[in-house]
Structures are given as C-alpha cells and as structure tokens.
C-alpha cells in the first residue's frame, strides 16, 4: 500500500504512514500484516534480479529494483573495443560459468541453467591443458612445475578439510602451503602458485583463509563436495554475458518495478520502515529494503546508513575483504604470441602481469588479434593509480621480455577497468581473509532491525566471489523476506551480537 509510482516519489510520508498497520506488530504472528508491503531491492545485479524473480514467483509484486547504472547486470559488464572494422565485445567483468556439469547426478550451476535457457554463445575454456610458459628471458618450459602446482593446490584443500574435521583453527593459506612442504622460491614456482591460487581468489595465499579458500574451491569445482565440476564455460556472446540476466529479468519484470540511473546515497531505517534517498534528492519509502550493494560499497561508506549500522554488522563488513581482479585487453594488428589458450609469465616480482589469454583462436575470436592479461590484489590497486599510458608501457615491456625476437607492434586498443576505484563496486569480488569466523559471515547476511536485509555474492558462505553465490543469496534471502511480507511469521536472519574467542588470550 505504500507503493508510489514514480510521479509520486516525493509522497507525504505521514499520509502514507497513517494508512498502514503499525510496523512493530509485524513480528508478532498474531498481528494483522500490512496488506501489500513494499520492498525496495537496492542494486540490480544478479542477486537483485533473482530476488525480484523470487518475489514475483510468490505473487509479491510491490517491489522496485533501484539501480545506479543504466542497465541491469551489476558486475556483468562488457565493452566493445578494437580498431574500426575489427571491433569485438569483451567482458571486463564476470566471464565464466564456473562448473558446468549437467549430469552425473550432481547439481547444476544455476547460472549455467540460465545461460542455456537464454541461448548464450559460450565456449569451453581450458585452464590447464593449453598452456605456454615464459619468464623474463623469453620462452621457458616449466610445465612440469605447473602441473605439480595443481596437485599441490589439491593437497592444500585436502589438508584444510582434515583441519575442519579435527576442529583445528584456521591459518593463512600461506601457512598451509608451507606446512604441506610447498615453499616457492623461483619466479617460475611463484607464477605457478599464483595461477592456482591468486588468479582465483584475487589475493595472495598470505592474505587468504586456508579453510575458506578450500571450501570455496570444493563447493564450486568438486562434484564430490557438492560442486558443479571443473569445466568452465566462457561467454563469447556478442550481446554480452549480461544477456542471460537481462533476458531473465525481461521475462517477468514490469517497467514500474525497476528504476535505472538511480544512485542511492542514504538509507534511513527504523524498526517500522525504510527511507532511501537518491543522489537527485528523491526519497523512496518502503516497508523493507534488501541491500545487494557490493561488500566494497558497504565498506567504503559510499552509502550512508542512518542510524549507523550496529557494531556487529560493521565488524562483519570490515572483516571480509573486497579483492580486485583486473583484465587488461590489447588488440594488435598482427600476432606474435603463443597459439595455446593460456600463457604464463614468471616475472621476478610475483604477480606482475602473470596470466595471459589468447582470444585469436578457433572457438574464441579468430582473427580478432585480441589478448588479455590479468592482474589481482595489490597489483591491481597499483596499476589503477597509474595513467593508462604507463601501464601500457609496462605491459609492452613484459611482452618484449616474453618474445625477445619479436617486433612488438603498437596495440590498436589498450583497455582495462578500474574496479577498485569504481564507486559502485570498490573491487571485483569478496575474499575471505585468514582467521575465519563463521559468525562474521552470518552477521554479513543478518537482518538489521527487521527492516533491512542483505544479499549478494559476499553473503554466500559456500560460493562467495561467484555469480552463482549472488544467485543463491538473492534466492534464499528473498525467500525469507517473502515470508515476512506474506505475514507467515518472519524468518529474520539472526545476528551474533558479539563474536568472541572461546578462550581468553594467554599472555
Ligand atoms: C572482473 C571480474 C571478474 C569476475 N569473474 C567472474 C566469473 O568469471 N565467474 C563468476 O562466477 N563470477 C565472476 N565475478 C564475480 C561476479 O561478477 C559477482 O560475484 C556477481 O556479479 C555479484 O553480483 P551481486 O548481485 O552480488 O552484486 P553486483 O553485481 O555488484 O550488484 C549490485 C548492484 O548495485 C549497484 N549499486 C552499487 N551502489 C549503488 C548505489 N549507491 N545506488 C544504486 N545502485 C548501486 C551496482 O551498480 C550493481 O548493479 C567477477 C567479477 C569481476 C568484477
Ligand atoms: C540513463 O542515463 C543514460 C546516460 O545518461 C541515458 O542514456 C539513459 O537514457 C538513461 N536511462 C534511463 C532509463 O533513465
Ligand atoms: C575439499 O575436498 C577434498 C577432496 O574431496 C576433501 O578431502 C577436503 O576435506 C575438502 N576440504 C574442505 C575444507 O572441506
Ligand atoms: C590470428 O591468428 C591467425 C592464425 O590462427 C593469424 O593468421 C592472424 O594473423 C591472427 N590475427 C591477428 C590480428 O593477429
Ligand atoms: C558463437 O561464437 C563463435 C566464435 O566467435 C562464432 O563463430 C559463432 O558464429 C557464434 N554463434 C552464434 C550463434 O552467435
Ligand atoms: C632469438 O634469436 C636468437 C638468435 O637468432 C636465437 O638464438 C634464439 O633462440 C631466439 N629466441 C627465441 C625465443 O626465438
Ligand atoms: C540482533 O539479534 C538480537 C537477538 O539475538 C535481536 O534482539 C536484535 O534485535 C538484533 N539486532 C538488530 C539490530 O536487528
């Protein structure tokens, strides 16, 4: 009943309030619920769209997605690059469906289901069987080290599992590597470890939880642990990977159920309502808000909460890390590089322009002349602070080191997105730092004052960092909220008011 159309956005709150059931009665199962409570879904990425679909499927239609960008999709972002006549749409955000097993009795990745439903063009990408290796002196065959690093990584997840069973504390993944005897010393050793670890988590083993990173690997990639398999489908669809979620939204979303170009600056909440202020001064009121903004946005105060979020929520937000994963795209007029899918470069500095991907291949974009290199973590933040020209110079120097006899032409395109600086994201995806506390994670998801709900990639315990994590959180949290809205008793997501150590420190 508090729903107001766009023309009525500046509705007199007192008028609306006077007509509504006292909100404080809502948690009381005997009380009469509001006839048609309004929900604001803040953010139109995968979590926001799937939450909206979940409401729709339950017959709840009084919701509005509020999105700052001019399209839905969130971190599914693409751009057309390239010289005139050789344009190519590339994904500088998410690009893979991670885990695509369909049969064998295991679960199917819900992103894969949507990709198939909406007919996206994908290609299977081979991360381990199509690799050429380099160091600062050019081609250098260290494929044996590369193959071994995969086994070492698997052992890391197995030993982490044993720690969980014995209830041993978490350690850094670096400690884990050392304890299983893996102590990379040479640039090649480090590059191989980087490929297995940092290229996935966007942070180093030292910065990552041993247990959570192992769980993260298992739940997505290991069918024995309920995962979706280790094959990865890369979108090469020229409508953009985002097409799968935009097409899904188009199947149910009505024009009055989403607002684009609408940046939230303030979220005021109490135990009976939520009031959201946009950059242009518009005020939206609702009974509930479901916030799906990235962890980075929450960490960085890009949106102000009034009152300030409770201590337990702030501690949870600041306990998780928003990591950065940066793809740097180049197009060349002719090729001089490897003909495998992947290239690995071992710089003396770990993480310096290490992972290269060749798009000029059958099954990808033959004739495109496009390759890209990925950097992560602190190195991503470093290059974001540099002008494009300087980054381009470094990248070309690395290519010259990899191909000492080649005359490297000027690239016709050089492009990367600064995810860490982007005020709508402040990074690429979340990563779990060492000293893992499940309670912090629970608090990241927990409802505040019964009115303010949270969902997104980062709130997923099993799939943080992934599209399917955002999907499942949109689904699960919206299902809980739908119960409240329908007056079936509220399944609030509980908080742990203080996360304490089992034993006091011994000094
Ligand atoms: C470079 C990169 C590569 C990735 N690769 C993969 C991959 O290959 N496979 C995979 O599974 N996952 C990948 N991911 C992760 C995946 O993209 C995310 O997990 C997922 O898209 C997160 O969805 P979400 O709905 O939780 O959040 P978002 O997509 O961040 O949605 C939140 C929305 O809120 C909006 N918003 C933010 N602030 C405001 C504001 N103040 N007012 C209004 N709106 C606001 C944003 O614009 C955004 O649309 C990658 C991510 C990046 C960045
Ligand atoms: C959003 O803004 C863009 C760029 O300013 C504009 O082209 C587009 O029409 C706007 N879209 C909506 C739905 O307001
Ligand atoms: C990960 O999977 C492996 C192999 O299936 C298993 O042995 C290990 O216990 C799992 N690790 C965790 C942290 O669950
Ligand atoms: C792409 O690869 C083909 C061979 O597979 C080669 O003939 C062509 O020159 C390459 N294109 C560019 C632009 O590098
Ligand atoms: C899918 O992409 C491939 C490789 O670029 C292309 O050859 C093919 O035509 C595309 N298929 C469709 C249906 O768009
Ligand atoms: C580069 O050229 C030199 C001299 O011809 C040759 O010895 C060397 O093997 C070449 N290196 C590569 C990587 O092709
Ligand atoms: C946190 O949980 C407690 C019960 O455990 C509850 O009373 C309190 O309202 C919750 N805090 C908020 C801000 O929702």
UniProtKB/TrEMBL annotation:
Residues 46-481 form the Amine oxidase domain. It comes from Postia placenta MAD-698-R-SB12. One of its GO terms (biological process) is polyamine catabolic process. PANTHER family: AMINE OXIDASE, FLAVIN MONOAMINE OXIDASE. Keywords: Signal. Residues 1-18 form the signal peptide. InterPro entries: Amino_oxidase (IPR002937), FAD/NAD-bd_sf (IPR036188), Flavin_monoamine_oxidase (IPR050281). This is Amine oxidase domain-containing protein. The keyword Signal applies. GO terms for molecular function: oxidoreductase activity.
């Amino acid at each position: 009943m508090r729903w107001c159309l766009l023309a009525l956005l500046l509705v007199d709150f007192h008028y609306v309030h006077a007509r509504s059931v006292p909100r404080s009665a809502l948690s009381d199962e005997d009380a009469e619920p509001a006839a048609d409570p309004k929900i604001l879904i803040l953010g139109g990425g995968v979590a926001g769209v799937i939450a909206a679909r979940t409401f729709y499927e339950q017959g709840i239609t009084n919701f509005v997605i509020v999105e700052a960008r001019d399209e839905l999709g969130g971190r599914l972002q693409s751009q057309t690059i390239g010289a005139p006549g050789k344009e190519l749409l590339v994904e500088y955000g998410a690009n893979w469906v991670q885990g695509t097993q369909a049969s064998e009795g295991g679960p199917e990745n819900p992103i894969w289901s949507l990709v198939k439903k909406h007919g996206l063009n994908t290609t299977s990408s081979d991360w381990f069987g199509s690799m050429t290796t380099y160091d600062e002196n050019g081609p250098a065959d260290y494929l044996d080290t590369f193959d071994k690093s995969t086994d070492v990584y698997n052992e890391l997840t197995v030993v982490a599992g044993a720690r969980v069973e014995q209830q041993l504390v978490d350690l850094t993944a670096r400690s884990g590597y050392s304890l299983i005897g893996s102590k990379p010393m040479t640039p090649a050793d480090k590059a191989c470890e980087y490929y297995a670890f940092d290229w996935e988590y966007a942070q180093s083993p030292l910065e990552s939880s041993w247990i959570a990173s192992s769980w993260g690997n298992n739940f997505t990639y290991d069918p024995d642990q309920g995962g979706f398999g280790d094959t990865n489908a890369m979108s090469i669809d020229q409508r953009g990977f985002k097409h799968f979620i935009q097409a899904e939204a188009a199947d149910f979303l009505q024009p009055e159920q989403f607002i684009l170009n609408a940046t939230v600056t303030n979220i005021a909440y109490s135990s009976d309502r939520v009031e959201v202020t946009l950059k242009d001064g518009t005020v939206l009121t609702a009974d509930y808000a479901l916030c799906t903004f990235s962890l980075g946005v929450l960490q960085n105060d890009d949106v102000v909460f009034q009152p300030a979020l409770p201590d337990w929520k702030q501690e949870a937000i600041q306990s998780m890390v928003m990591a950065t994963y940066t793809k740097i795209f180049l197009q060349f007029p002719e090729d001089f590089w490897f003909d495998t899918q992947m290239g690995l470069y071992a710089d003396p500095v770990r993480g310096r322009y290490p992972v290269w991907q060749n798009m000029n291949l059958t099954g990808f974009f033959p004739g495109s002349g496009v390759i890209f290199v990925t950097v992560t973590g602190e190195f991503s933040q470093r290059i974001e602070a540099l002008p494009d020209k300087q980054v381009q110079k470094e990248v070309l120097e690395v290519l010259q080191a990899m191909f000492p006899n080649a005359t490297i032409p000027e690239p016709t395109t050089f492009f990367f997105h600064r995810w860490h600086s982007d005020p709508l994201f402040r990074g690429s995806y979340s990563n779990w730092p060492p000293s893992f506390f499940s309670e912090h994670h629970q608090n990241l998801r927990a409802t505040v004052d019964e009115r303010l709900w949270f969902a997104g990639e980062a709130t997923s315990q099993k799939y943080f960092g992934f599209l399917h994590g955002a999907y499942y959180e949109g689904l699960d949290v919206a299902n809980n909220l739908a119960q409240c809205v329908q007056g079936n008793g509220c399944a609030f997501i509980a908080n742990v008011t203080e996360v304490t150590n089992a034993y006091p420190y011994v000094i």
